[in-house]
Design brief:
5-stranded mixed beta sheet
Length: 244
């Protein structure tokens, strides 16, 4: 049985204005390079918030680091995080560094984002008769993360061209722009009623969460209606190339 749906964003109102808030871990995978690592950490959370139709305006970030983590690297993380947030129109209003001597991870932390506006959508507002549109490709984030984590295995199994094609799609893991385009159509009966980014659980997980939150069934047409990029789908490869 599928797991109960999580709540990516909360909505509340003050003085007739709506606010969306979301929180996530703030993973900084330095093996990706500083620029990409911070971009990903910021956009993971921004993508969640933007599915409400609101844009992030404020962020609070905390980092839990080992005692010997270099101060210069911490400074570079804050600088890049500020730049990436600013590019989204978002200001870092609070930040904190904790030293965690017993941490089993080289770096961990969290990020909370807040946005506001005059209208919003949630998974609960999907209605009977809606048509569900999927942008980009199923399996995209998993393919990118796995390819970058196991580059040699992927290149051996599928070839350098496939790896480069997946690597070139790194920035497509963000759904911030997707949400902006959808919201340009407006909301309500003539526009967008609900949005969701497919991460944990993939397309099926996202559909289940929309269905559960809205109380509606969803009819899914497989095959060509669910887009999968050629490099994400991969090609046949000897099993030994993937397991050795």
């Amino acid at each position: 049985m599928p797991p109960s749906p999580g709540v990516d964003c909360g909505i509340f109102s003050i003085g007739g204005r709506y606010f969306a808030v979301t929180t996530d871990p703030f993973p900084v995978h330095l093996e990706l390079g500083m620029e990409r690592a911070i971009w990903l950490a910021v956009h993971i959370t921004a993508s969640d918030l933007c599915t409400t139709g609101l844009r992030p305006a404020w962020a609070a970030i905390s980092l839990a680091l080992p005692p010997d983590f270099h101060e210069n690297t911490i400074g570079a993380i804050w600088e890049r995080a500020s730049e990436e947030c600013a590019a989204l129109g978002c200001s870092i209003v609070a930040r904190k560094v904790l030293r965690a001597p017993r941490s089993s991870q080289p770096m961990s932390g969290s990020i909370t984002m807040l946005g506001s506006g005059e209208t919003y959508v949630t998974t609960r507002s999907a209605r009977p008769g809606d048509v569900i549109l999927m942008t980009k490709s199923a399996g995209l984030e998993a393919a990118i993360v796995l390819a970058l984590s196991f580059r040699e295995k992927v290149e051996k199994a599928f070839g350098s061209d496939v790896f480069r094609a997946i690597d070139s799609r790194f920035m497509e893991m963000s759904t911030v722009r997707d949400s902006e385009v959808c919201m340009s159509a407006g909301t309500g009966s003539e526009g967008v009623t609900s949005m969701h980014d497919a991460t944990e659980g993939g397309v099926l997980g996202a559909l289940f969460e929309i269905s559960e939150a809205s109380g509606n069934g969803i009819e899914v047409y497989g095959g060509e209606s669910i887009n999968v990029y050629e490099e994400v789908g991969g090609r046949s490869a000897p099993s030994s190339a993937l397991t050795h």
